[in-house]
Amino acid sequence: MSESILTTTSFDTLAEQKPEDKPKLEQKDESQVLEQERSYLVSEVEYKKLLRKLDIHLLPFISLLYLLSFLDRANIGNARIAGLGVDLHLDGLKYNVNLRYLF
């Protein structure tokens, strides 16, 4: 039953369509295409300005996050010795799984 459904739809009917029945693509002249291409071009100076601006705004924040991550990793061993595992009921594998997120 499903075979008859598949055979009724064929590519022959699509090929028989007249050209005026097919959707027409919008024709653009060369000046419109060139104007669109110019709007996307960025000079090397503008590109360097953008990178500098991103560096100035993002690097301090990322550096702070890296510092805090390092402090956490350095102190987790001291916290376990001081009783963190006992207080939070982290024994064996539970402590190791939680420690994995810091690294």
From TrEMBL:
Subcellular location: Membrane
GO MF annotation, one: transmembrane transporter activity
Membrane topology type: Multi-pass membrane protein
Listed PANTHER family: MAJOR FACILITATOR SUPERFAMILY (MFS) PROFILE DOMAIN-CONTAINING PROTEIN, PERMEASE-RELATED
Biased composition (Polar residues): 1-12
UniProt GO cellular component terms: membrane
Record keywords: Membrane, Transmembrane, Transmembrane helix, Transport
Protein known as: Uncharacterized protein
Chief location bin: membrane
UniProt keyword Phosphoprotein present: no
Segments of skewed composition (Basic and acidic residues): 15-31
Region (Disordered): 1-31
